[in-house]
Amino acid sequence: MEDNKKEEKKISPAKRVLAIIAVVLIIAVYIVGLVFAIMGKGYAIPVVMTSMLVAAYIAVYFHLGQVLVRLLKGKNKKNEDGDDLNG
User: Residue 76 half-sphere exposure, CB side, CA atoms within 13 Å?
Assistant: First the structure.
Protein backbone atom coordinates (compact mmCIF):
# COMPACT_ATOMS: atom_id res chain seq x y z
CA MET A 1 0.00 0.00 0.00
CA GLU A 2 2.76 2.44 0.91
CA ASP A 3 4.79 1.39 -2.15
CA ASN A 4 1.99 2.64 -4.42
CA LYS A 5 2.18 6.09 -2.84
CA LYS A 6 5.92 6.29 -3.45
CA GLU A 7 5.55 5.24 -7.09
CA GLU A 8 2.93 7.90 -7.88
CA LYS A 9 4.27 10.80 -9.88
CA LYS A 10 3.71 14.20 -8.37
CA ILE A 11 1.95 16.61 -10.68
CA SER A 12 3.49 20.05 -10.72
CA PRO A 13 1.23 22.97 -9.83
CA ALA A 14 1.81 24.51 -13.26
CA LYS A 15 0.53 21.39 -15.03
CA ARG A 16 -2.47 21.26 -12.74
CA VAL A 17 -3.34 24.91 -13.44
CA LEU A 18 -2.93 24.40 -17.21
CA ALA A 19 -5.15 21.33 -17.08
CA ILE A 20 -7.85 23.22 -15.19
CA ILE A 21 -7.64 26.09 -17.68
CA ALA A 22 -7.98 23.66 -20.60
CA VAL A 23 -11.00 21.95 -19.07
CA VAL A 24 -12.69 25.28 -18.31
CA LEU A 25 -12.05 26.54 -21.86
CA ILE A 26 -13.42 23.39 -23.45
CA ILE A 27 -16.52 23.42 -21.24
CA ALA A 28 -17.07 27.13 -21.99
CA VAL A 29 -16.81 26.52 -25.72
CA TYR A 30 -19.37 23.72 -25.56
CA ILE A 31 -21.74 25.85 -23.46
CA VAL A 32 -21.53 28.67 -26.02
CA GLY A 33 -22.33 26.20 -28.79
CA LEU A 34 -25.23 24.77 -26.81
CA VAL A 35 -26.69 28.21 -26.10
CA PHE A 36 -26.56 29.17 -29.77
CA ALA A 37 -28.05 25.81 -30.76
CA ILE A 38 -30.95 26.32 -28.38
CA MET A 39 -31.54 29.85 -29.69
CA GLY A 40 -32.06 28.31 -33.13
CA LYS A 41 -31.16 31.34 -35.20
CA GLY A 42 -29.77 31.02 -38.72
CA TYR A 43 -26.18 31.25 -37.50
CA ALA A 44 -26.54 28.47 -34.91
CA ILE A 45 -25.08 25.68 -37.08
CA PRO A 46 -21.86 27.53 -37.96
CA VAL A 47 -21.39 28.56 -34.32
CA VAL A 48 -21.90 25.00 -33.07
CA MET A 49 -19.50 23.60 -35.68
CA THR A 50 -16.94 26.27 -34.83
CA SER A 51 -17.23 25.53 -31.12
CA MET A 52 -16.59 21.85 -31.76
CA LEU A 53 -13.51 22.67 -33.84
CA VAL A 54 -12.21 25.11 -31.22
CA ALA A 55 -12.62 22.48 -28.49
CA ALA A 56 -10.64 20.01 -30.58
CA TYR A 57 -7.94 22.59 -31.30
CA ILE A 58 -7.59 23.44 -27.61
CA ALA A 59 -7.10 19.79 -26.73
CA VAL A 60 -4.56 19.27 -29.53
CA TYR A 61 -2.58 22.41 -28.66
CA PHE A 62 -2.36 21.50 -24.98
CA HIS A 63 -1.21 18.00 -25.90
CA LEU A 64 1.42 19.35 -28.29
CA GLY A 65 2.58 21.73 -25.58
CA GLN A 66 3.10 18.83 -23.18
CA VAL A 67 5.06 16.91 -25.82
CA LEU A 68 7.23 19.96 -26.50
CA VAL A 69 7.95 20.43 -22.80
CA ARG A 70 8.95 16.76 -22.48
CA LEU A 71 11.28 17.05 -25.45
CA LEU A 72 12.89 20.22 -24.12
CA LYS A 73 13.34 18.73 -20.66
CA GLY A 74 15.03 15.70 -22.21
CA LYS A 75 17.48 17.89 -24.13
CA ASN A 76 18.21 19.99 -21.04
CA LYS A 77 19.02 16.86 -19.03
CA LYS A 78 21.45 15.72 -21.73
CA ASN A 79 23.16 19.13 -21.70
CA GLU A 80 23.47 19.09 -17.91
CA ASP A 81 25.06 15.61 -18.02
CA GLY A 82 27.78 16.93 -20.32
CA ASP A 83 26.65 15.12 -23.44
CA ASP A 84 27.21 16.93 -26.72
CA LEU A 85 24.01 17.25 -28.77
CA ASN A 86 25.91 17.98 -31.99
CA GLY A 87 27.60 14.64 -32.17
Answer: 6
* Number of other residues whose CB lies within 10 A of the CB of residue 30: 15
pTM of the model: 0.58
Residues 6+ away with beta carbon under 8 Å from 65: 18
Q: Per residue in 21-31, pLDDT tens?
A: 888 988 998 89
DSSP codes, the chain: -HHHHHHSPPPPHHHHHHHHHHHHHHHHHHHHHHHHHHHT-TTHHHHHHHHHHHHHHHHHHHHHHHHHHHHHHHHHHHHHTT--TT-
